[in-house]
């Protein structure tokens, strides 16, 4: 039987009485040894939830239990078990990467020798050896993010929380980062990932909660959630400048969903896919590109949110 790391019940967070709650009655369990994801658009309440799980923000109401302990009543317990990689990380700007890693390891109870050994392993894994004498403030955005990920990994905390960890990273480095994170989960650590990257969510997560406006719309494995829309396909359309204006009536008729600048999605049942494609062909001169996409977590979100995109 899966053992909960976190047990969250009826969690509410309000920043002001006249504003909608950032988290609105959230309840979920996060199990030991799993990679659990929070997927949703910016402003959905994902980071607010993480700040409460990691003791940075106190809930307005509700309970959070970590390994059976009430961490709302005693948030100091969280820091013995949880390591966080936040989106923004304020570090001493003149410090060198290795010194930051070693100090973090020592603060987490490691001996100097053990902290140096783990720091050197992470520096090698993330290909940061050429940056050992570069102060933190002079590193690129991607390099600073790698250091923040490495800092979270120092000391082998039983719970690791990553907030959009692979932003600013190139594909090869991203692969190495996920290899490290997945190794941690296989070793029994609980990993919580905040993301709005659908591809990332589908490939690395064991379970995912889709979050919108402070509430959980759906919770399950990526496969379970995609099963909700298995009978549909999505046509993705990229219009030439002005093309979407010329096709405005047709897009309205097809209930097309805006996905970004000149980008639209049309969701159709599989049996109607051929008809929908035939309907697109006379409008090819208005398009730069179009493609057919099988269901993914974006489609689940589109259905549950009434047509709002994760990228919105």
TrEMBL record:
Q: Which residues form the ABC transporter domain?
A: 6-238
Q: Does the keyword DNA repair apply?
A: no
**Cross-referenced Pfam families, in alphabetical order?**
ABC_tran
| Entry keywords, A to Z | ATP-binding, Nucleotide-binding, Transport
* Keyword Transport attached: yes
Q: Which GO terms describe its molecular function?
A: ATP binding
- UniProt cross-references to Gene3D superfamilies, sorted A to Z: P-loop containing nucleotide triphosphate hydrolases (3.40.50.300)
Q: What is this protein called?
A: ABC-2 type transport system ATP-binding protein
